[in-house]
Amino acid sequence: MTESTPLHPGLLLVLSAPSGAGKTTLAHRLMRELSSTIFSVSVTTRRPRGKEQEGVDYHFVDVATFQQKIERGEFVEWAEVHGHFYGSPQSVVEEARARRGTAIFDIDVQGGQAIKRKHPDAVLVFVLPPSMEELERRLRDRKTDSDETIRRRMLAARSEIERGVASYDYVIVNDDIERAFQELRSVVVAERCRRGRVDLSMMKLEKTASEPGR
Ligand SMILES: Nc1nc2c(ncn2[C@@H]2O[C@H](COP(=O)(O)OP(=O)(O)O)[C@@H](O)[C@H]2O)c(=O)[nH]1
Ligand SMILES: Nc1ncnc2c1ncn2[C@@H]1O[C@H](COP(=O)(O)OP(=O)(O)O)[C@@H](O)[C@H]1O
Q1: In contact, 14 and 172? CB cutoff 8 Å
Q2: Which of 61, 160, 167, 169 is deepest in the core (most CB within 10 A)?
Q3: Which ligand lies nearest to the CA atom of residue 57 in the structure?
Q4: The whole model's pTM is what?
Q5: Which of 42, 126, 150 has most ligand 1 atoms within 8 Å of its beta carbon, as the pocket-test mutant?
Q6: How many Å apart are CA 137 and CA 131, to the nearest integer?
Q7: What is the CATH code of the structural domain delimited by 11-193?
Q8: pLDDT over 70 for what percent of the chain?
Q9: Where are the domains of the chain?
Q10: SS3 38
Q11: What are the pocket residues of ligand 2 if the criterion is a CB atom closer than 6 Å to any ligand atom?
Q12: pLDDT tens-digit readout, 73-113
């Protein structure tokens, strides 16, 4: 399906969720099924996990390199999460604006709130698991985390959910992946059409005016 010519100045879409709720699954599907999407590959000091690849899932760096990037202003936001540093590249924001595309940030609530402070037109979407039991089941079934890591993530999940639901623009419950994806897609499509975002200078109205006598 084709989409309309973008008349908006690019969409900054933040997806957050407690670890294991399914935001990465949803973000990757948005990338596949919507045009003009740019996935923000974060920079992290944590080690690669499972089949993760450099430059695809994350840019994996050491702490000294991460600090250099902070000093050079290369992050639109950065934070410490579960004992590691994570940062979102400023270049992704610039690319989304230049291409009038949709940048997808798969980051935590503090990161989403920081992007919203800098860019009030950013759209924040929080993904909820159907229950805490199901969240733990998904983390275990993923088989990428140790028992200790899962325990830490489950502890962090409660406050992440409270802060996300209280401050985000949209909340989507990921019980059935198909329904959750269709809801997320609807949010993106609606936000791309939002009146406040339309930039009429793109239409060159003055050149198309054809009133009688002109
Ligand atoms: N603030 C911020 N958080 C990030 C960034 N990248 C990833 N995160 C968050 O860091 C947390 C841990 O991510 P990760 O280690 O990949 O584990 P996951 O939760 O299983 O995806 C998740 O809540 C991510 O959303 C980033 O660039 N900035
Ligand atoms: N609606 C769903 N129903 C069942 N399993 C799901 C659903 N959404 C995602 N999953 C699975 O749950 C696990 C965690 O999803 P993932 O996208 O890695 O979460 P996050 O990025 O939020 O940590 C993965 O194994 C994924 O395949």
Answers
A1: no
A2: 160
A3: 1
A4: 0.90
A5: 42
A6: 10
A7: 3.40.50.300
A8: 93
A9: 11-193
A10: strand
A11: 17, 19-25, 138, 141-142, 174, 176-177
A12: 999 999 998 789 999 999 999 999 999 899 999 999 999 99
